[in-house]
Amino acid sequence: MMIRSMGVLALISVAGVAAAAPYVSLFEQDVKSYLKDVTIERDGPTFAATDWVYGRVIVDEGDTTSPAPQDYLTQVARLKALEDGVLNTNFLCVEVNQGLVPGPVPYSKFYAHGRAGYLVNLVRDPMLRDDRDAMAGLQLALWEVAYDDTNGNPDNLLSDRFRLYSSGQFNATARGWANTFLSWSVGQSAGYYYYKSPSVRDNQGVAHQDLVSTVPSPAAFLPFAVGLVSAMRRRRK
Ligand SMILES: [Ca+2]
Ligand SMILES: [Ca+2]
Hints:
27% of the residues lie in helices and 29% in strands. The chain contains six helices and ten strands. It has one domain (2-236). By secondary structure, the protein is an alpha+beta fold. The two termini are 33 Å apart. Bound molecules: calcium ion (CA) (2 copies). The site of one calcium ion (CA) has 7 residues, from loops.
């Protein structure tokens, strides 16, 4: 989620971007069917500052939003919001450069399926969901898939359309989780919900944040994920 832009990096020319293959969004790649219209309202306190992990990322959204890579100071975490008045604590963000304004906003809810769904489902893991660094890493991994995997680029948090400003940005634990989740998700796919934001901008001219969340589903997934986490924690000791 955007806090504020830190200015345009002029390292890559507009001409160079224009010559690249057409940009493919996560929505374009993964969405399978429209479900219904809902309202999404950011939960009042959302998260305390201590629940976020901050850092800088560089995003090249192709021709959808910005003509050149942009540099953002951003906050990452699992997000709480009200969906039609019911608290949903399993949201993650899709668009680095767009905001989630207070008050109910109309969204269109879709069923989607893909590699991102495997990542989204990790928020249900009780061993991960309350770990601030793990959730920050999960958001970073999701952005990497949303911007780069969809566009045929290899997993690399330091290159291509989505990248960390430098390896010194975000803490090493969050970066480690992001790389772990990316490695787990290779060749995986699962269903998830994609919430398409309104095309209009809010009263401050900010475009709205697209969101993703889990599909309520059988618990069969969880023992698998918990097993992976347990195995990873054993390896770390
Ligand atoms: Ca990347
Ligand atoms: Ca949007």
